[in-house]
Amino acid sequence: MDKMVIHGGERLIGEVQIGGAKNAALPLFIAALLTDEEIHLHNVPALRDIDTVEKLLRNMGITVKREGFDATIQAKSLDTIEAPYDLVRTMRASILVLGPLLARAHGAKVSLPGGCAIGTRPINLHLDGFHALGAEIDLEHGYIHAKADKLAGTTIDLSLPTVTGTENLMMAAALAEGTTIIENAAREPEVVEVGNFINKMGGQISGLGTKTVVIKGVSALHGTDYTIMPDRVEAATYMVAAGMTRGNLLIKGARPQHLKAVIDKLSEAGMEIHEENGGLRCLMTGSIKSVDAKTLPYPGFPTDVQAQLMAMMCFANGLSVISETVFENRFMHVGELKRMGADIQVEGHSAIIRGRGELSGAPVMATDLRASASLVLAGLAASGTTEISRIYHLDRGYERMEEKLRVVGANIRRVKA
Ligand code: EPU
Predict the structure, then answer these.
(1) Domain range holding 96?
(2) Is the CB of 349 under 6 A from ligand 1?
């Protein structure tokens, strides 16, 4: 397994280009199942999760061609309607095939994802929604068996604004008979992206970005061309990197309208952030101020940036309380940050960080994608050498991270196993 070796203490100065959003690209690849015509995607990030979704689609007999940052997908016919355990296990987003398969092929067999490093992560809201649309759902031998001769529009009131749940139901409802209303829908920009994409395929979805999404079912969707939005979590990660290394980075492609909560929080922590040349200039000259934060569904502070902010708070001088309200167990990075000298105490859903202005490099282990990112950031700002093992987690969601960081002055290298 590859390792990342970082000699900390370098200020990051220069420009970082943000790639296409992982959590938009994944559902868009899968939405290609909704038509037998060609889908052309641009700005596709080079990530391990994209390789996994490609495998998942190919396994169903779908043509996927990738060239650089472009992909062409055509689901002319399906060899199988199954998403097997070994693929769902490596990438939970595979459950997004349920909606399009039900709509297009009237059935699906998808492995139950099970728990993961950040919590139990049930999918009951996806399944209840499909049931309300008219699908029969059975669980057998670790698989979800779903079938529906036809799907009929209805009102679905989500008890939690689930991101992939909203996307899954939107995809199914796009080809259902009649109108579906999703109440308490997720408002994340990636959800809006999926809706816009379906509309470009001939769908009729309105209310995107609000709590009530209305989907008028159509009889067929057609092929289209689409450029994937920039990754707001990758952007936020480099913004924190600029702050933690007292750096000066232009985060190219970052969309400020997607990052409001992050910009507000990092500004409160002492960073200067402003729009410049189609990106965000992020500068840190003074010392890092302790701030409190609470993760919330969009437009609140994103859970996907919680670990990175926590790494930053270890370098402040003072007390910070970070509460995680989206996932029940997303503090796996705490133990690793402690190995680097952090003073963090977890009490229920909150972590109390007593910032000491420094951390010292140590061997640490990555446990999930965003936890891995927080350890890279901690390593960049710590004194001495940090060695991060199990970085395959990082490759799931960060494109060539060590290369992007090296260009702006980081002393970081990947050691191949
Ligand atoms: N939930 C349920 N039942 C459901 C669905 C969700 O109880 O049927 C709960 C979850 O357990 C969690 C909360 O609702 O406590 C929110 O989960 P959500 O369904 O919104 O998360 P997700 O769709 O599984 C997506 C992203 C995550 C991101 C979350 C929250 C993708 C592929 N994944 O997950 O991204 O953290 O939304 O914003 O879009 C990452 O990129 O590192 C990542 C984990």
Answers:
(1) 22-227
(2) no
The pLDDT of residue 114 is above 80: no
Radius of gyration of the chain measured on its C-alpha atoms:
21
Angle between helix axes 163-174 and 189-200 (nearest 10 degrees) is 10
- Residues 334-347, buried b or exposed e (16+ Cβ, 10 A)? bebbbbbbbebeee
Backbone angles phi, psi at 381, to 5 degrees: -100, -15
Q: Please state, in angstroms and rounded to a whole number, the distance separating the CA atoms of residues 354 and 341.
A: 11
- Over pLDDT 90: what percentage of the chain? 95
Three-state DSSP class for residue 52: helix
Instruction: Give the distance (Å) from ligand 1 centre to CA of residue 96.
Output: 12
Q: Which one of 193, 227, 261 terminates a domain?
A: 227
Residues 153 and 282 in one domain: no
282 is annotated as an active-site residue? no
pTM above 0.90, yes or no: yes
* pLDDT at residue 116, as a whole number: 76
